[in-house]
Amino acid sequence: MYVSEDEGSLVVGEDLSGPSAVVAYGGEERRLRMEFSVESVAQLLRVLDEMGEMPLRGYLSDEGHDIVDLMDLCDANGVPYTYVGLGPGGGVQFRPAP
């Protein structure tokens, strides 16, 4: 996973390829991206702290976690984010933050 900033939002992304991407997404490559507002980042950090998890950087660098785990964590705790999935040939998934 990687972390970057885009127009004031925190972006967490993961690039997938190979057989598991074919099984999960129907193509050999997929780029997954979550965007968090400043308020959402603060909420996510509180959730991680309350759960006794490591800080966000540690959570993301832990190979036991992937972006789907982060999505599940956010969904379970009401942390809003925007999700975009991009594949070759123009396949796009989009889920805006509530």
In short:
By secondary structure, this protein is α+β, with helices and mostly antiparallel strands. 38% of the residues lie in helices and 32% in strands. The longest helix is centred in the middle third of the chain and has 13 residues, at 38-50.
Distance between the termini: 24 Å
Average pLDDT metric = 87
- For the secondary structure, the number of strands is 5
Gyration radius over CA: 14 Å
Estimated structural class: alpha+beta
Strand content: 25-35%
- Strand order of the main beta sheet, please? 1-2-3-4-5
Low-confidence stretches: none
User: What is the tally of helical segments?
Assistant: 4
Give the helix proportion (percent range).
25-40%
* Shape estimate: globular
Largest sheet data: 5 strands, antiparallel
Question: Helix and strand string, N-terminal first?
Answer: EEHEHHHEE
Summary keywords:
98 residues, alpha+beta, 5-stranded antiparallel beta sheet, 38% helix, 32% strand
Describe, in plain words, how this protein is organized in 3D.
- The protein is an alpha+beta fold.
- 38% of the residues lie in helices and 32% in strands.
- It contains four helices and five strands, in the order ββαβαααββ.
- It is globular, with a radius of gyration of 14 Å.
- The model has no long low-confidence stretch (mean pLDDT 87).
SSE topology sketch:
Elements: E1 2-6, E2 9-17, H1 19-25, E3 29-36, H2 38-50, H3 56-61, H4 67-77, E4 82-86, E5 92-95
Antiparallel strand pairs: 1-2, 2-3, 3-4, 4-5
